[in-house]
Please model this.
Amino acid sequence: MHSTEQERARRFTQIGVSQRIRLEWMEYTANLVLAGNAPPAIYEALNALLKDSVSVGGNARRSNREKTISILMKVWVRPLRDLQPLRREGLQLLLRLAPSDRIAVHWGIMMAVYPFWGAVASYVGRLLRLQGTVTAAQVQRRMRAQYGDRSTVQRAVQRVLRSFVDWGVLQDTSDPGVYVQGIQRAIDNPHLVAWMASAFLHAQPAGRGEWQTVLQATSLFPFQLAPLAAGYLVRVSEQLETLRHGLDQDLLLLRRG
Model:
Protein backbone atom coordinates (compact mmCIF):
# COMPACT_ATOMS: atom_id res chain seq x y z
CA MET A 1 0.00 0.00 0.00
CA HIS A 2 1.29 3.48 -0.90
CA SER A 3 2.49 5.53 2.09
CA THR A 4 -0.20 8.18 1.51
CA GLU A 5 -2.88 5.50 1.47
CA GLN A 6 -1.45 4.00 4.66
CA GLU A 7 -1.55 7.40 6.35
CA ARG A 8 -5.12 7.89 5.21
CA ALA A 9 -6.21 4.45 6.44
CA ARG A 10 -4.57 5.07 9.82
CA ARG A 11 -6.65 8.22 10.34
CA PHE A 12 -9.82 6.16 10.61
CA THR A 13 -8.57 3.85 13.35
CA GLN A 14 -6.72 6.37 15.52
CA ILE A 15 -8.40 8.61 18.07
CA GLY A 16 -5.91 11.45 17.90
CA VAL A 17 -7.99 14.10 19.66
CA SER A 18 -6.84 13.44 23.21
CA GLN A 19 -7.17 17.01 24.47
CA ARG A 20 -9.81 19.71 24.68
CA ILE A 21 -9.27 22.09 21.77
CA ARG A 22 -10.59 25.62 22.07
CA LEU A 23 -11.83 27.44 19.00
CA GLU A 24 -9.66 30.45 19.85
CA TRP A 25 -6.55 28.22 19.68
CA MET A 26 -7.58 27.05 16.21
CA GLU A 27 -8.00 30.66 15.12
CA TYR A 28 -4.64 31.63 16.60
CA THR A 29 -2.85 28.77 14.84
CA ALA A 30 -4.44 29.48 11.47
CA ASN A 31 -3.60 33.18 11.79
CA LEU A 32 0.04 32.31 12.51
CA VAL A 33 0.12 30.26 9.31
CA LEU A 34 -1.57 33.02 7.30
CA ALA A 35 0.98 35.51 8.62
CA GLY A 36 3.74 33.41 7.05
CA ASN A 37 5.34 32.01 10.19
CA ALA A 38 7.54 28.92 9.86
CA PRO A 39 6.54 25.76 11.78
CA PRO A 40 9.22 26.16 14.52
CA ALA A 41 8.05 29.71 15.20
CA ILE A 42 4.42 28.55 15.31
CA TYR A 43 5.33 25.83 17.80
CA GLU A 44 7.03 28.35 20.08
CA ALA A 45 4.13 30.79 19.80
CA LEU A 46 1.64 28.05 20.74
CA ASN A 47 3.80 26.97 23.65
CA ALA A 48 3.81 30.54 24.93
CA LEU A 49 0.05 30.86 24.41
CA LEU A 50 -0.76 27.67 26.30
CA LYS A 51 1.80 27.81 29.11
CA ASP A 52 -0.65 29.45 31.51
CA SER A 53 -3.68 27.32 30.61
CA VAL A 54 -2.50 23.78 29.74
CA SER A 55 -0.12 21.70 31.89
CA VAL A 56 0.75 24.72 34.01
CA GLY A 57 4.14 24.14 35.57
CA GLY A 58 4.73 21.01 33.52
CA ASN A 59 7.46 20.57 30.95
CA ALA A 60 7.30 16.81 30.35
CA ARG A 61 7.78 15.98 26.70
CA ARG A 62 4.33 14.44 26.30
CA SER A 63 2.51 16.77 28.67
CA ASN A 64 -1.05 17.81 27.89
CA ARG A 65 0.36 21.06 26.50
CA GLU A 66 2.64 19.16 24.14
CA LYS A 67 -0.27 16.98 22.98
CA THR A 68 -2.48 20.03 22.43
CA ILE A 69 0.19 21.75 20.36
CA SER A 70 0.68 18.56 18.36
CA ILE A 71 -3.04 18.49 17.50
CA LEU A 72 -3.08 22.14 16.44
CA MET A 73 0.08 21.71 14.36
CA LYS A 74 -1.30 18.62 12.63
CA VAL A 75 -4.50 20.47 11.73
CA TRP A 76 -3.24 23.79 10.37
CA VAL A 77 0.54 23.49 10.02
CA ARG A 78 1.56 19.96 9.04
CA PRO A 79 -1.45 17.98 7.79
CA LEU A 80 -1.05 14.64 6.05
CA ARG A 81 -0.24 14.83 2.36
CA ASP A 82 -3.73 14.06 1.08
CA LEU A 83 -5.21 16.83 3.23
CA GLN A 84 -2.88 19.60 2.11
CA PRO A 85 -5.18 20.86 -0.70
CA LEU A 86 -8.09 21.00 1.78
CA ARG A 87 -5.93 22.94 4.23
CA ARG A 88 -4.70 25.34 1.54
CA GLU A 89 -8.22 26.09 0.34
CA GLY A 90 -9.46 26.37 3.95
CA LEU A 91 -6.82 28.98 4.74
CA GLN A 92 -7.85 30.97 1.67
CA LEU A 93 -11.46 30.85 2.85
CA LEU A 94 -10.50 32.12 6.30
CA LEU A 95 -9.09 35.25 4.67
CA ARG A 96 -12.39 35.99 2.91
CA LEU A 97 -15.07 34.86 5.34
CA ALA A 98 -16.91 36.86 7.95
CA PRO A 99 -15.72 36.04 11.49
CA SER A 100 -19.01 34.28 12.26
CA ASP A 101 -18.48 31.81 9.39
CA ARG A 102 -14.87 30.89 10.20
CA ILE A 103 -16.02 28.27 12.72
CA ALA A 104 -17.25 26.15 9.80
CA VAL A 105 -13.73 25.96 8.35
CA HIS A 106 -12.21 24.98 11.68
CA TRP A 107 -14.92 22.35 12.16
CA GLY A 108 -14.40 20.88 8.70
CA ILE A 109 -10.63 20.62 8.98
CA MET A 110 -10.90 19.01 12.43
CA MET A 111 -13.28 16.37 11.02
CA ALA A 112 -10.95 15.65 8.11
CA VAL A 113 -7.73 15.44 10.12
CA TYR A 114 -9.34 13.62 13.05
CA PRO A 115 -12.30 11.46 11.92
CA PHE A 116 -12.89 10.63 15.61
CA TRP A 117 -14.08 14.24 16.03
CA GLY A 118 -16.54 13.67 13.20
CA ALA A 119 -17.65 10.32 14.64
CA VAL A 120 -18.49 11.93 17.98
CA ALA A 121 -20.22 14.80 16.17
CA SER A 122 -22.24 12.38 14.04
CA TYR A 123 -23.71 10.62 17.07
CA VAL A 124 -24.26 13.90 18.93
CA GLY A 125 -26.11 15.29 15.93
CA ARG A 126 -28.19 12.14 15.61
CA LEU A 127 -29.27 12.30 19.25
CA LEU A 128 -30.10 15.99 18.98
CA ARG A 129 -32.24 15.26 15.95
CA LEU A 130 -34.03 12.37 17.65
CA GLN A 131 -34.54 13.62 21.18
CA GLY A 132 -33.30 17.21 21.45
CA THR A 133 -30.73 16.37 24.13
CA VAL A 134 -27.47 14.43 24.38
CA THR A 135 -25.97 12.70 27.38
CA ALA A 136 -22.27 12.06 27.74
CA ALA A 137 -23.06 8.48 28.79
CA GLN A 138 -24.88 7.79 25.50
CA VAL A 139 -21.96 9.10 23.45
CA GLN A 140 -19.46 7.18 25.59
CA ARG A 141 -21.28 3.89 24.98
CA ARG A 142 -21.43 4.47 21.23
CA MET A 143 -17.78 5.45 20.86
CA ARG A 144 -16.55 2.57 23.03
CA ALA A 145 -18.51 0.18 20.84
CA GLN A 146 -16.92 1.69 17.73
CA TYR A 147 -13.35 2.32 18.90
CA GLY A 148 -12.94 -0.17 21.75
CA ASP A 149 -13.76 -0.23 25.42
CA ARG A 150 -10.64 1.49 26.73
CA SER A 151 -9.89 4.44 28.96
CA THR A 152 -8.32 6.46 26.13
CA VAL A 153 -11.66 6.43 24.27
CA GLN A 154 -13.53 7.58 27.38
CA ARG A 155 -11.13 10.47 28.00
CA ALA A 156 -11.14 11.49 24.35
CA VAL A 157 -14.96 11.59 24.22
CA GLN A 158 -15.03 13.76 27.35
CA ARG A 159 -12.56 16.20 25.83
CA VAL A 160 -14.28 16.35 22.46
CA LEU A 161 -17.63 17.05 24.13
CA ARG A 162 -16.05 19.81 26.22
CA SER A 163 -14.55 21.20 23.01
CA PHE A 164 -18.03 21.27 21.45
CA VAL A 165 -19.25 23.28 24.44
CA ASP A 166 -16.28 25.63 24.16
CA TRP A 167 -17.01 26.15 20.46
CA GLY A 168 -20.62 26.99 21.37
CA VAL A 169 -22.19 24.21 19.29
CA LEU A 170 -23.37 22.38 22.43
CA GLN A 171 -24.70 23.92 25.62
CA ASP A 172 -24.57 22.56 29.15
CA THR A 173 -27.85 22.09 31.00
CA SER A 174 -28.65 22.11 34.70
CA ASP A 175 -28.18 18.33 34.61
CA PRO A 176 -24.47 17.40 34.61
CA GLY A 177 -23.47 15.50 31.48
CA VAL A 178 -26.60 16.51 29.55
CA TYR A 179 -26.32 18.86 26.57
CA VAL A 180 -28.60 20.66 24.13
CA GLN A 181 -27.99 22.26 20.74
CA GLY A 182 -25.93 25.41 20.77
CA ILE A 183 -25.34 27.70 17.81
CA GLN A 184 -26.37 26.60 14.35
CA ARG A 185 -25.23 28.60 11.36
CA ALA A 186 -26.69 28.71 7.86
CA ILE A 187 -23.92 28.33 5.26
CA ASP A 188 -24.85 29.69 1.84
CA ASN A 189 -21.48 30.83 0.46
CA PRO A 190 -21.01 28.42 -2.49
CA HIS A 191 -17.25 28.13 -1.99
CA LEU A 192 -17.69 27.34 1.69
CA VAL A 193 -20.50 24.85 1.01
CA ALA A 194 -18.28 23.04 -1.52
CA TRP A 195 -15.33 23.09 0.87
CA MET A 196 -17.45 21.70 3.72
CA ALA A 197 -18.62 18.91 1.43
CA SER A 198 -14.98 18.13 0.62
CA ALA A 199 -14.06 18.12 4.32
CA PHE A 200 -16.95 15.76 5.06
CA LEU A 201 -15.82 13.36 2.32
CA HIS A 202 -12.24 13.42 3.65
CA ALA A 203 -13.70 12.21 6.96
CA GLN A 204 -15.29 9.18 5.24
CA PRO A 205 -13.22 6.06 4.52
CA ALA A 206 -14.64 5.76 0.99
CA GLY A 207 -14.08 9.46 0.21
CA ARG A 208 -17.43 9.69 -1.54
CA GLY A 209 -21.10 10.14 -0.76
CA GLU A 210 -24.44 11.19 -2.16
CA TRP A 211 -24.89 14.95 -2.01
CA GLN A 212 -28.22 14.58 -0.20
CA THR A 213 -26.44 12.46 2.42
CA VAL A 214 -23.88 15.22 2.93
CA LEU A 215 -26.63 17.80 3.32
CA GLN A 216 -28.29 15.68 6.01
CA ALA A 217 -25.07 14.56 7.74
CA THR A 218 -25.44 14.68 11.51
CA SER A 219 -21.70 15.27 11.89
CA LEU A 220 -22.41 18.75 10.50
CA PHE A 221 -25.11 19.41 13.11
CA PRO A 222 -23.88 22.97 13.90
CA PHE A 223 -24.44 24.01 10.28
CA GLN A 224 -27.14 24.10 7.63
CA LEU A 225 -25.59 23.84 4.18
CA ALA A 226 -27.47 25.49 1.35
CA PRO A 227 -28.86 22.78 -1.00
CA LEU A 228 -26.99 24.02 -4.06
CA ALA A 229 -26.83 21.91 -7.21
CA ALA A 230 -24.01 19.35 -7.09
CA GLY A 231 -22.86 20.40 -10.55
CA TYR A 232 -22.44 23.97 -9.33
CA LEU A 233 -20.34 22.83 -6.36
CA VAL A 234 -17.99 21.02 -8.71
CA ARG A 235 -17.55 24.17 -10.78
CA VAL A 236 -16.48 26.23 -7.75
CA SER A 237 -14.33 23.52 -6.14
CA GLU A 238 -10.94 22.14 -7.11
CA GLN A 239 -11.51 19.07 -4.94
CA LEU A 240 -14.86 17.66 -6.02
CA GLU A 241 -16.16 15.55 -8.86
CA THR A 242 -19.70 14.34 -9.39
CA LEU A 243 -21.37 11.31 -10.93
CA ARG A 244 -25.05 10.79 -11.61
CA HIS A 245 -26.16 8.00 -9.30
CA GLY A 246 -29.56 6.54 -10.07
CA LEU A 247 -32.34 8.65 -11.47
CA ASP A 248 -32.07 11.70 -9.24
CA GLN A 249 -29.02 11.29 -7.00
CA ASP A 250 -25.67 13.01 -7.42
CA LEU A 251 -22.62 11.22 -6.05
CA LEU A 252 -19.82 13.49 -4.87
CA LEU A 253 -16.25 12.21 -5.01
CA LEU A 254 -12.93 13.65 -4.00
CA ARG A 255 -10.85 14.46 -7.05
CA ARG A 256 -7.66 12.41 -7.08
CA GLY A 257 -4.33 13.50 -8.47
